[in-house]
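Hi everyone,

Forwarding the result from last night's run.
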Amino acid sequence: MRKLTYLLCTILILLLSACSKNSSDGLIMIQGGTFENTNSNFFDKQITIHDFYIGKYEITQKEWVEIMGNNPSSFLGDKLPVETVSWYDCIEYCNKRSLKEGLEQYYNIDKNMIDPDNRSEYDSIKWIVTINEEANGYRLPTEAEWEYAASGGRKSKDYKYSGNNEVDKVAWFWRNAGNTYLTGDWNWASIESSNNSTKTIGEKNANELGLYDMSGNVREWCFDWYENEEQSNGIYRVWKGGGWMGDSTCCEISYRGKFEANGFGADHGFRVCRNK
């Protein structure tokens, strides 16, 4: 009887360990706190981030195909980040992956109603998307979460880019993402002739938290509406991090990009989060 009890306990421990691993597989737990990095837009703004999980890498094409069954990317490769995905595509991916892994879906998506808060004249989709705040499923990071993680969180060394002050050490961008290192002013002809493209995830240095490619490779969608003193919300969604065709400025952790939610391009990708 004692041997049977020991065997059952051992099996239970193994099962719990497996569940624990799956719950954060491919994700890194980010310890919450206030912004330490002085380069951040949120520094000294009395904003506190709660603990959360975020993807160690950008979502790859292999991960996308496993959930969505298609590959919209312009540059093909299992370990390349998925791109040419809209904000809506990413929201659907999060819900479908949650469902597949037995997690509670984070988003409520109503495709039959037009979002009255979406004032974009170019967005032809305008689904109503609301959230289940306590759900344990996959989701996009908020802009603040993304910037907190990219800036090193509690371990921040006050870098300008995610993990370094030298952009080439941590980011693929227009100068280094092709066959030759480009110089001079940004121009599309040089980018084309150098065959610039996305790169395999994780080839550059990680940041202080062990996160890769938060500067460069592909621009990453965030959940938030874009808003500032001149631009009210309801028109664009935020993207962060810069990408292979953009300048180094876009790779800075503080840079705030914007795009219509239904927009997509060969430098638009994402990474996922989950609540802790």
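The first helix runs from residue 2 to 23.

Cheers,
N.
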